[in-house]
Amino acid sequence: AARARWLVSGEALVYAVSTFPFYVDLCDGRYTGFFNSGLNTGWVRVFRILNIFRTSEYSAAVNTVWRVLIVNRTILLASLALVLFMILLTATLLFSIATDATLAANGIANLPDAMYLAVLMLTGQALPEGELSTGTKGIVLFTSFFSVPIFAVPAAMLTWGFEGEAARLASREQRRFERRQAFGASPEAACDSSDDDDSDFEDYLRTAAGVDEGEREEQAEQALRFLAAEGAAA
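The chain above was modelled as a monomer; its predicted structure follows.
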């Protein structure tokens, strides 16, 4: 039963995909192509990297990234929408205002080509080549002042999210240290019930929201006093 469950797990799927090209080569008799169809399966071999690093041993790191993305999903999706809007706006301005010579110098024949150059401009990787007209220079200035900061929003939010995770881990280590100081090196005393995924997620939410242990204890005391007052009144 356990082996059957493992066969349908994600780890088993990674193993199957990573070994897929080997069996294709055995059937095909060659090391390139896919049954003489021209389809190359060599890129699938990259999944063997996951086998080397044993993805199950890195589940804590994956869970950390997942928590940060889930908690900050709203602002990340909003910033992604702004990024897509600025790409489309910049590309449209470039394609509409730039001269024919500038478009030819940058290999822009349609709007998708302009979007490629817009992404390079928004990320600070490149500028339009050739002799720039006044309108094109205005687009470049507009991009520098307004578009680039919008591209920095997702990176800033991810940085803030990982800072919150670091604060949560520091708080957990502090609690462990205080328990060891209070109860000694007993394994039962050193055991932390917040090691599971659900408690880790709750701790991260409290850290991101700025709720500390003192506030939690005060809220619990207020709830107990309220319940005691209600019981006395009844």
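The radius of gyration is 28 Å.
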